[in-house]
Amino acid sequence: MTLRDYLVTGEGNRLTLHGVDLVDLCSKYGTPLFVFDEKSLVENFERFRGAFENVYSKIMVCYSIKTNNNLAICKILRERGAYAEVASELDLYVAKKAGFSGDHVIYDGPYKPRDALRKALEEEVLLINVESFSEMERFNQIAGKMGVKQAIGLRISPFRRRSFSAYTSLSGLIEAAYCNHGCRFGFPLEDAYSAFKRAVKLENLSVEGIITHPYRGAANTLLPIVREVHERLGIEVKYLDLGGGFYSGATRFVGSKELIWDLLRQKVGFKSKLNEGQSIVEIESVAKSVIDKVRQNLGGLPEPTIVVEPGRFIVASAGALLVRVDHVKSAGGFKWVMVDGGTNLVPHSFGYMEFHDVMSANKASGSQEELVNVVGPLLYSEDIVTLKARLPNVSEGDILLVFGCGAYTLSKSTQFLHPRPPAVLLDSKGEVRVIREKETFEDVLDKDKDV
Ligand SMILES: Cc1ncc(COP(=O)(O)O)c(C=O)c1O
Known about the structure:
Lyase, Ornithine Decarboxylase, Chain A, domain 1; TIM Barrel; 2 domains; nine-stranded mixed sheet; 13 helices; 30% helix; binds pyridoxal-5'-phosphate
């Protein structure tokens, strides 16, 4: 169940969540307003963990802190038994504040300066996933100076440079020509064996894990390496980390190819499909197929602990954003609904537009629906919440509920043009708690110096 499933239309055709009138909530806290549902958050986490635990006994679910680093959210997940995946010193700080002990933390990420590595060692984190030869040497030196031996994993990049003919979009071709950016993470496949060979020789590190991200195809990438390093170097990989990337179904990612297809469909008389939810693969079958692949490829080796690092799956659908319609206008043959929160609060993922379902909170079951583009308050044209949303006769002052706003929002929102809004958490009894205060103009200037 997600936040959406707990919405009920109440008095005056207004949306309620666990009995709380969402329009009243906006009157009290103002808009924009992030709303989190504790029940959905916990259910998402427990469903995810259960899906894996039902098919494999040694599972570690590490919540990816960067996805939503709000202290209350992180604490709730810690209390439910989550481990934490951190990707910076800030993430580690948040994890500690939220009560995660070092032995419940895995440290990932392509950028780990010396101070971060020192801090990770001080906190005695369970595992640090190393991404390059230079990081490995640096880390060995630091651990030596501190007189400790640290468990590490090696991140492997399955990414190979694709030929130009593999690309079907202009942006893809440009990417192929300039950077193929995915390949910058971890050790390239062809270096994996030599990375393990070097790592076992480093006296202050003990090689215990292997990781790739995202999880799709991870077992096929990692297990041949696990077998090879076992056979040739005698290394037993204790932690098989499959990363994150588990689709939550809360938002829809739309690339330029899909936009073009959608346009063509409309030209020949079909309806736009942009606002039809993306098909959601059940996490239970994802877990089963991932574990089946691991087992098929283990080749008689002892079963490792499997680490998974979900972010979006846990929080995306547990959070929504309430926004107020500032005005509605027609321009260029489209109807535009301008609201007071957009991509400053719910940024798009890199390379994609991320479309969110939208519903009216004060005309919850309205008729006279119209197709509108809902856009935010920024000054650039990509500040889009969603396109071709079907909403009942939108007018100034309406409150809209934007779904799927729990992931990469609180942690990624900006102060560009507007201070950041508050966030509240509702529990299943309808108790409302503020989990982030509203920022003021003074807060925005707080660290500036007037010279
Ligand atoms: C190494 C690693 N683990 C986990 C995650 C979380 O991914 P998601 O939120 O898509 O599950 C990310 C996201 O970028 C990542 O880079």
